[in-house]
Description:
The protein is mainly β. The chain has helices at residues 211-214, 282-285; strands at residues 11-19, 25-36, 56-65, 69-78, 88-101, 107-125, 133-147, 160-175, 186-195, 221-235, 243-256, 270-272, 289-291, 322-336, 341-354, 366-377, 381-390, 402-409.
Amino acid sequence: SGSFVYRCVLCAAAVFGSYGGFYGFVGTVGLSFNNFSIRNVPHLKKWRPLPVGDGQRLSLRAQANGRSFQSYSLSFTEPWLGGRRPNSLTVSLNHSVSRLANARFEFTDNTSLKQSGITLGFGRRLEWPDNYFSLTHSLSYLIYNYRNYFGGASSILPAEGRTNEIMFNTTLSRNSIDNPMYPSAGSTISLAVNLTPPYSQWRDKSYYENINQRYRWTELHKWMFDAKFYLKLIGSEKPDGRSLVLETKAHMGFIGTYDRSLGPGPFQRFLVGGDGLAGGFNSFVLGQDIIGLRGYPNNSVTPPLYSLRGSQQSNGIEGGIVYNKFGMELRYPVTTGQSATIYGFLFTEAGNNWDNYRDFNPFNLYKSAGVGARIFMPAFGLIGLNWAYGFDRLPGAADISGSQFHFTIGQQIR
C-alpha cells in the first residue's frame, strides 16, 4: 500500500516543535534508549541500532527557543550497579545558553548567560522502615558565565564574570502509590537537602568586598519537602479501574546561607505562579525551581517582580528564598487503559513566595480554584488543560487575578 509501520521496543522518542517567527525554532527533541549496553559498544553485532542488552538507560535531549535559549543534556544510568541489588549510578552532562535581545532585536553572546555542568548520582532502595523508601546522593559541578545579563548598575553581580557551583544533594523519599498515571491509593513523600561548601567560614571578610569575587562561588543550603496523598472515595477496587480519588499535597522550600552578612545570591531561587513551565528560560540556566500556582499569571508570585513594581530599581535578583504551596484535587477518570489515560478534576490550591524570612508567613497565601483535565498517551506524554480563578490581588496589581487558563506538558512534581 506504500505505507509502513516501525516498532521500537528498546527506545522512546519525543519531538515537539514549531517555528516561532521572531524567535526561530521553538521545541524539544528527546531520545531515550531503555536497554542500552555500554559493555557491548565494541561488539557491532549487538547494535540494534545501538548496543543493547544490559537494561541501562541512555537519554539525549535538546530544547530551543530560537537564538534566545538552547539547552542540551545527556545522561547515562546503570540501574543495577554491582549486579545484585537495585543500586543505580547516573552520570549526566548539560549545557544551556540564554541570550537577551539588543536594540536591533538580535540575540547575541554580548548579553548572555551560559551554564555547563556535570552530575554524578547514586541511589539505592532501602529495606527499613519498609521497602517503599529510597535514598539518593548526587554531586554536581556547574559553571555560570554571564555577560551584560543582569540588572545593570544596581545589580549585585558584575557586568561580566564567572560563577562556580559545587553542590551535594541527599534525597530521602518514599513512594507507595498503586498506579503512576492515575494513583488511587498510597503516597509520595520526599525530603531533599542541597549543600555547597561553606567558603565564608574560612575566608577573610575582605574577600567579599570585591564585587568580582563575592559570588565567584555559590554558597547556600537548600531544603525541599514534597508530599502527595491519595484517597479512593468510591469506585473500583482495581488499581487501573475507575474511581473517584482525592489528592492532597504540600510543598515547601527554604534557602539559607552560612553567613547572614552575605545573603543569598541570585542562584537556585524559587519562581512561583502559573502553569509551572514558563518561569523564563533563564530559570533553567540559573538552577531555579519553577513552582506552578494556577489562577495567577506565570512567574507572577515571585519577588521582586511584584514587590519592587513601580517603586525601586531591580538589583538583578529574581526569585524567592522561601515558599509554601498547598492543594487538593478531586479526580475522576474517563479511561485508564494502556493506550490512554484521561481524567477530569476539580482543584483548589494556595501558595506564596518570599525573598526574606522577616516577611515569611505560612498563613498569608494566594488562593485559587478551578477545573481541568489531563491526557496521557505514550506517543505524546502527559498534557494538562486548566481553568482557574485567582481570588486574591497581587501587590501592585489593580484587581484580583481572576480567570486564568493554563496548559501543562509532562508530570509536575510541584
